[in-house]
Write a structure and sequence with these properties.
Blueprint lengths: L13 H11 L4 E5 L2 E4 H17 L7 E5 L4 H13 L2 E4 L6 H11 L3 E5 L3 H10 L5 E5 L8 H8 L20 E8 L5 E7 H15 L6 E4 L6 H11 L4 E4 L5 H10 L4 E4 L1 H9 L13 E4 L6 H11 L3 E7 L3 E6 L10 H6 L5 E2 L4 E5 L12 E6 L6 E2 L3 H7 E2 L2 E10 L5 E6 L4 E3 L2 E3 L1 H8 L5 E11 L3 E10 L7 H11 L8 E4 L13 H10 L7
Helix pairs in contact: 1-2, 1-3, 2-3, 2-6, 4-5, 7-8, 10-11
Length: 534
C-alpha cells in the first residue's frame, strides 16, 4: 500500500538525504569514479530513472533486489534507487562460492538480480536454481550506453526535482533498506535487516564523530557489499560531502591518489593500514590533506596504530560495532596520543566510549550486569540496531533479548566508560576484515577422504588481524599434505576462508561433555598476545 504522505520523505530516511541534497546542493559533486563525476542532482535523477524502470517491470516496495558486483558507480545508484522506492537491496559478497551465493538468494528471494560480466559463472547457477528472480540484468561497469543496465536507466523517467509528482511508494523510517549477510552460529550466512532510520542514524553518528563537513572528500575502497563501506558513503552524503569510489584497495594507487588529490577522509581495516605503511620506502611518502582515517572491523595491534600515528598524525578514529549493531563506540582523535600519560597510553588499546544514545552493559552468563573492570559479554541497546535476521526468527530471538543485542564479544568497561575487548564469545574469526565461521571450514575439510576429525580456530596474525588455523586428525593409514588439504578446502568454500596452516594431531582435545576443547587449542596462541586483541 502506498503511504499517504507528502512527496518529501520523512527526515530520518535515506530517501530524504537523496532528495534533500538534489534540491539544496544540486551542482555539488556527489560521486567520482574513474572518469565519471556525478553531481547530487545527476545521481538522484539516475537513481530515480533506475527505480522507475524497476517499478515499471513489476518491482514494488518491499521486494528484494540482489547485486553481485565489485565497486562501481552503478552499485551506488542501485542502493539509491532502492532507498528512494522502498525496494530492499541485497548486496552479495563476490568472494563467496557458487553454492554460498545461491544460499543468499534462496534466503532472500530477490525478484531482480544485477551483476557484472565477471560473475556470469555463479549467476548461471542462480538462474538454474532460483524460483523468485524474474530478471537478470548485466552491468557493464564501464558506462557503456549499450549495456543492459544503461538501457534500464534510459527507459526510466525522472520528473523535475520541483515537481509535486511522486511515482513511488514513499519509504517510512521503519522500512527495511537492506539485508546484509554475515556468518552466524549455524555457519550459514544470515541476513541482518537494517532500516532506513537505522542507517540514517549510523551515518549521522559517524559523520559527527569525525566532524565531516560538506567540503570533505572521502576515499572509499572497501567493497560495497560490506556494511562498513555503506556506512562511510552515507556519513559523507548526509553532510553533502563528496565520495571518490575506487574498484578496490591497491596500496601504490592509494598513495598516488593521496599525493595528487585533496582526499580528507578514508577508511582502512588494520590489514590495509599495514600494507599501506609497508609501501613507504626510505621514509619517503607524500604529504596528504587527510584529516580523518577511520579504522574498524578487525583487531589492530598497538604497534601498528602507533606507526600510523607517526606517519599520518592524530587523524585516527576507531569504530567498534557490527553489521547487526551498527556504530556502538568510538575512540576519538583526541584519544589517540602516542606519548601521553599512562592512562592515555591505555586508551590506544581500547575501543573507545559509547556513542550518544547507546547503552552498553557487560553481563555474565546469567545476564547479571557486571561491575567496572569485570569481563563479560557485551550487550547493547540503541535505536539503530538491526530489526532482526531475515527469515530466521530463532537466531533473532537469541541475539536480541529484551531489546539488547548480544554482540558475542567478551569485554569490560573501565571506570571512565572506555570499552576493552578481551575475547570473543563466539568462534568467529575476523581475518583482513572478513568474517569467517570455523564450522564452514571444518565442514569443508572433513569431506576430504583422509580426514577423520578437524577443529578450526583463529590465531593472531600481524597483518591480517587473525589467521585461520586448522587442527586435523587423519584416518588410520591415511595421509594428506598441508598444501593439498588447503587447496582441497579452497575448492569447497571461498578462498579467503581456507586455512593458512594445518596442524596435525593424533586426537583432538575434548572436555567432559565430549565437545572439542577449543579453549585449550587457542590458549598457546592468544596467551602470548594478551593485550593486543584490539
Amino acid at each position: 500500500m502506498v503511504a499517504k504522505m507528502s512527496v518529501m520523505p520523512e527526515t530520518n530516511t535515506l530517501a530524504f538525504i537523496l532528495r534533500n541534497n538534489a534540491e539544496t546542493i544540486p551542482d555539488k559533486t556527489a560521486i567520482t569514479y574513474k572518469d565519471i563525476h556525478y553531481s547530487y542532482l545527476e545521481h538522484y535523477q539516475r537513481a530515480v530513472k533506475l527505480a522507475s524502470s524497476l517499478s515499471s517491470s513489476g518491482c514494488k516496495a518491499g521486494d528484494r533486489i540482489a547485486i553481485l558486483a565489485k565497486n562501481c558507480v552503478e552499485y551506488l545508484e542501485l542502493y539509491s534507487a532502492c532507498e528512494i522506492a522502498g525496494f530492499i537491496i541485497v548486496p552479495v559478497n563476490f568472494r563467496l562460492t557458487k553454492s554460498e551465493i545461491q544460499h543468499v538468494c534462496d534466503n532472500t528471494s530477490p525478484v531482480v538480480c544485477l551483476y557484472t560480466a565477471e560473475y556470469e559463472s555463479p549467476i548461471e547457477l542462480v538462474k538454474l536454481e532460483s524460483k523468485s528472480i524474474r530478471a537478470f540484468i548485466r552491468i557493464d561497469a564501464s558506462n557503456n550506453a549499450q549495456d543492459q543496465y544503461q538501457e534500464l536507466i534510459n527507459s526510466g523517467t525522472a520528473p523535475d526535482i520541483n515537481s509535486s509528482e511522486n511515482q513511488f511508494y514513499i519509504p517510512l523510517a521503519s522500512d527495511p533498506a537492506c539485508i546484509i549477510h554475515t556468518s552466524g552460529t549455524t555457519g550459514h550466512p544470515k541476513g541482518a535487516v537494517l532500516s532506513q532510520s537505522a542507517l540514517y542514524g549510523i551515518a549521522d553518528t559517524i559523520s559527527t564523530d569525525a566532524d565531516i563537513q560538506s567540503d570533505d572528500y572521502g576515499l572509499l575502497m572497501q567493497p560495497l557489499f560490506h556494511v562498513g563501506a555503506k556506512f562511510l558513503q552515507l556519513a559523507h552524503h548526509i553532510r553533502g560531502a563528496t565520495i571518490k569510489l575506487e574498484l578496490g584497495f591497491e596500496p601504490a594507487n592509494v598513495w598516488r591518489i593521496l599525493a595528487r588529490e585533496n582526499i580528507t577522509t578514508m577508511q582502512l581495516v588494520p590489514t590495509m593500514l599495514d600494507i599501506l605503511l609497508d609501501e613507504i620506502k626510505d621514509g619517503n611518502y607524500p604529504q596528504t590533506k587527510l584529516k580523518t582515517i577511520f579504522y574498524s572491523t578487525a583487531p589492530i595491534r598497538e604497534s601498528l596504530l602507533r606507526r600510523g600515528l607517526e606517519v599520518f598524525g592524530q587523524v585516527f578514529v576507531q569504530q567498534y560495532g557490527s553489521t547487526e549493531g551498527g556504530q556502538i563506540t568510538s575512540l576519538a582523535k583526541h584519544h589517540h596520543i602516542n606519548d601521553g600519560s599512562e592512562k592515555e597510553q591505555k586508551w590506544l588499546t581500547s575501543a573507545g566510549t559509547a556513542n550518544p544514545g547507546v547503552d552498553i552493559s557487560i553481563v555474565n552468563n546469567e545476564g547479571v550486569v557486571l561491575a567496572a573492570g569485570e569481563p563479560g559479554e557485551i550487550i547493547v541497546k540503541h535505536s539503530n540496531i538491526m530489526q532482526g535476521y531475515w527469515n530466521d526468527i530463532d537466531s533473532t530471538a537469541s541475539t536480541i533479548v529484551n531489546g539488547y543485542l548480544h554482540m558475542g564479544d567478551i569485554g569490560y568497561l573501565d571506570e571512565e566508560g572506555f570499552l576493552y575487548i578481551v575475547d570473543r564469545k563466539k568462534d568467529m574469526i575476523i581475518s583482513g576484515g572478513e568474517n569467517i565461521y570455523p564450522r564452514e571450514v571444518e565442514a569443508a575439510l572433513i569431506q576430504h577422504p583422509a580426514v577423520s576429525e578437524t577443529a578450526v580456530i583463529g590465531i593472531p596474525d600481524e597483518r591480517w588481524g587473525e589467521a585461520v588455523l586448522a587442527f586435523v586428525v587423519c584416518k588410520e593409514n591415511e595421509t594428506v599434505s598441508e598444501n593439498d588439504l588447503i587447496q582441497y578446502c579452497k575448492q569447497q568454500i571461498a578462498s579467503y576462508k581456507k586455512p593458512g596452516a594445518i596442524k596435525y594431531l593424533d586426537a583432538l582435545p575434548r572436555i567432559a561433555t565430549g565437545k572439542v576443547d577449543k579453549v585449550s587449542l587457542r590458549r598457546p596462541y592468544w596467551q602470548k598476545n594478551k593485550g593486543n586483541l584490539i
